């Protein structure tokens, strides 16, 4: 847990006292590939900090899984609307490989904030980071073509391209697998020559 705190920007400024109050509320959970972290139709009242592994968020549309986000080490996973407004989750999050995750329930976090208000600043930073990531994705899809989205990921999120299977990546980029294969092949040809 100490490693994730050191590597997680939203918690790096917390005092020793705040960490001593906050850390006992986190519980370690080991997920196997395919395990659900967040289930569609169920409330999500916790924050999940990824220490190891990655997961994907998806919906089912017309019988197909549509991937709309991936979460990697040191990121926080939650359903923001469910967490903030006590609604059921409108998507599923599933482990894509074995994961180590640290979970804190909303009620425990609120209690920790009462004990040490500085924790609230870290929580706000965390929610801002989640919102900024979502905004970046919206811009990615509003402005860029499929080829442009792929090029953007090459420059800004190469880990995603290396770790995510092509079928899931195609769904995330909003294209067919064959289209993504053509885009990849065209991007690789100049490097080969």
TrEMBL record:
- Return the PROSITE patterns for the record: CNMP_BINDING_3 (PS50042)
**Xref: InterPro entries:** cNMP-bd_dom (IPR000595), cNMP-bd_dom_sf (IPR018490), RmlC-like_jellyroll (IPR014710)
Spell out the protein name for this chain.
Answer: Crp/Fnr family transcriptional regulator
Top-level taxon of the source organism: Bacteria
Tell me which residues make up the Cyclic nucleotide-binding domain.
10-109
Q: What's the source species for this entry?
A: Niastella caeni
Entry-linked Gene3D superfamilies = Jelly Rolls
Tell me which SUPFAM superfamilies the record gives. Answer: cAMP-binding domain-like
């Amino acid at each position: 847990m100490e490693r994730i705190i050191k590597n997680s920007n939203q918690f790096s400024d917390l005092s020793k006292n705040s960490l001593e109050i906050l850390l006992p509320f986190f519980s370690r959970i080991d997920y196997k590939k395919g395990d659900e972290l967040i289930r569609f139709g169920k409330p999500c009242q916790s924050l999940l900090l990824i220490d190891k592994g990655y997961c994907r968020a998806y919906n089912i549309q017309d019988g197909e899984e549509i991937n709309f986000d991936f979460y990697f080490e040191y990121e926080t996973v939650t359903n923001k609307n469910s967490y903030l407004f006590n609604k059921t989750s409108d998507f599923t999050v599933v482990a894509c490989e074995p994961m180590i995750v640290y979970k804190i329930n909303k009620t425990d976090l609120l209690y920790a904030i009462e004990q040490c208000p500085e924790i609230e600043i870290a929580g706000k930073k965390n929610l801002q980071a989640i919102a900024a990531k979502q905004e970046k994705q919206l811009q990615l899809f509003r402005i860029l073509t499929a080829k442009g989205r792929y090029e953007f990921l090459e420059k800004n999120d190469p880990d995603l391209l290396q770790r995510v299977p092509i079928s899931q990546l195609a769904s995330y980029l909003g294209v067919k697998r064959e289209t993504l294969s053509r885009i990849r092949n065209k991007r690789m040809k100049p490097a080969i020559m």
